Amino acid sequence: MATIHDVARAASVAPSTVSRHINGHSVRQSEAIERAIEELGFRASASARNLRKGSTQVIAMIVPDIQNPYYAATVAGAEEVGRENGLRLVLCNTDEDIELEKAVLRDIVGRVDGVILVPASERSSTALFEAPSAIPLVLMDRETLGPRRFDTVTIDNFRGGTLAAQHLLDLGHRDVAIITGPLTASQSSARERGFLETFAAARFVVPERFIERGNFREDGGYQAALNILSAADRPSALFVINNMMSMGALRAIGHLGIKVPDNLSLLCFDQLPCEGVISPRISTIRRPMQEQGAMAMRLLVTRLRAGDREHEPRTLTLPVELSIAASTQRLAGGGDRGGSYTAA
Amino acid sequence: MATIHDVARAASVAPSTVSRHINGHSVRQSEAIERAIEELGFRASASARNLRKGSTQVIAMIVPDIQNPYYAATVAGAEEVGRENGLRLVLCNTDEDIELEKAVLRDIVGRVDGVILVPASERSSTALFEAPSAIPLVLMDRETLGPRRFDTVTIDNFRGGTLAAQHLLDLGHRDVAIITGPLTASQSSARERGFLETFAAARFVVPERFIERGNFREDGGYQAALNILSAADRPSALFVINNMMSMGALRAIGHLGIKVPDNLSLLCFDQLPCEGVISPRISTIRRPMQEQGAMAMRLLVTRLRAGDREHEPRTLTLPVELSIAASTQRLAGGGDRGGSYTAA
DNA sequence: CGAGAAAGTGAAACCGATTTGAGTTGATCA
DNA sequence: TGATCAACTCAAATCGGTTTCACTTTCTCG
Fold it and tell me: With 90 as the cut, is the pLDDT of residue A143 above it?
């Protein structure tokens, strides 16, 4: 590989002049340099540049599950804002695995200028970002324990839970079940609290057997839904706390031959991958996904620009809304339209 | 940030000794060094190490659409093989955009030891990888024009097309439509050829108006399906060439109130995101997705190990198979089971 | 025209690790 | 004890760019 020295020699100038040319300064011999670059097929070494400049213009986004379309949407938002600011985005997967996450963080720090992290758990290790000289970290969606606070873009998870509960209450549901996530995931526990507390406030208690914990993935939702729905006394409504587990729940509902919404009202959190394709449409709690990623990147850019650790970490909380469709129905209300999820 | 020199001073040894310790050589003062590293919070600079070593232990995988679960699955396969070989995988998105792809490649080359690329088009620029000194490139799924050949992991796309056609022929379908991709995408055109030629061989010609080209994405599939299915004379069967466009087609089918398989047999390529959730189950052409990613990474590792450009580029072609479900039905055959995609 | 400012240049230092080459230390064996 | 060899160690060179500093050239304007 040709180096900047080769180019300099070919163009009869000093390496520093070539460097200046590359970096947009005006240079007298620019045509000769350009020609030499072309002929030698010169590409500046990223490592050398990074080393000297101390920056890479790359941001890493670390998510627990790239298969989840929610993350894909946030990535799109972050990518766009990054592009506007001359930053490249790379993506890493942690499979909801806190050990893998730790390894990824260790490997990636030092190769990028900043990180957007969706923590696998509230116990995720942010130690690498706690030193004052560390690169900036923005958390998304979930929060972490630990001594230091970071910029965070979250949504009003608690309100999402209350909206869901209130909707089901309004429809007359009293025996409701919830499929939620591990206790260590702050976003699902907030949704869960919002849901349970709203029911409690209405003097209805969700019994233990109607609270199942899954792993946020399709198989977890499937298993949890089977547990809840194959018992003798079934709830009249089910709230599933994220989209992938909702997919699993839908599969279980199909296997069990349960009709939605006639035999069960179903309410999910986040847009489903199958949206638009199944019938009846699913009622969901929604949030601005793309915007969430964009916001995370904006916070990061601000930190990078400012270079200051001065101002306090900011937490942005985006709103959620209830999107009512056909999967939730008034309890014992006669309406009979709506399809079936029965297995073929 | 502490450097290796700071550690060396704190431990009263030379920087080179610290370096050796870090890299696993036996060193007398290892405890003192370890203590110094701990105290100073030392992390070796990736840039400096990359510059000196000329390698990064990172592989980039560049895909046209991270929202597509097919890619997510291949990523998982590649990631695992990478991990076994001490390589970290980062992911970049190109949105099926050849210009963006070019920019991503330019930025990423020099930061990684190798690239797995799913080209956005056969005209994708692989120029950066053509020099003998360039880092290795493995192509996945699609092939590119251009002077040099690269290691490639593909599937038997042509056979996928013929399997699809033969299945529909066997069921008695004669008036069939196909939703395919741009002419510049080799994988879809191979599937398309397999499909059309098989019909032609059976002396049935698929008319132009039954051949629609989409952009591989949900909206493209929706539009294409609308075009084909809202005409007066509809085909009795539809073959959709990839999963995301299949989702769009399903949505269109729902909007138009067409019953599958009673009024239309539907056959798709690749597993759908909504699989397991909708009814009737969709007949599909399938392939080993995870294995495909794993193979790509193995080819890359081989190149990296060998360091040789000697042996010819290899092309691995993985098999496809037909998975028959309820969405394809014998033409005019009475069977009446199977659900409906009617919009709620 | 000449002073002063502006623009451009090259040599050398620098970023922070690894590697080389030339010792130094310590153990082993005759 | 002295020779031989293995195991370590250090100073210096190196990777390939960018930046600084001191200097030269060119432009501007009274």
Answer: no
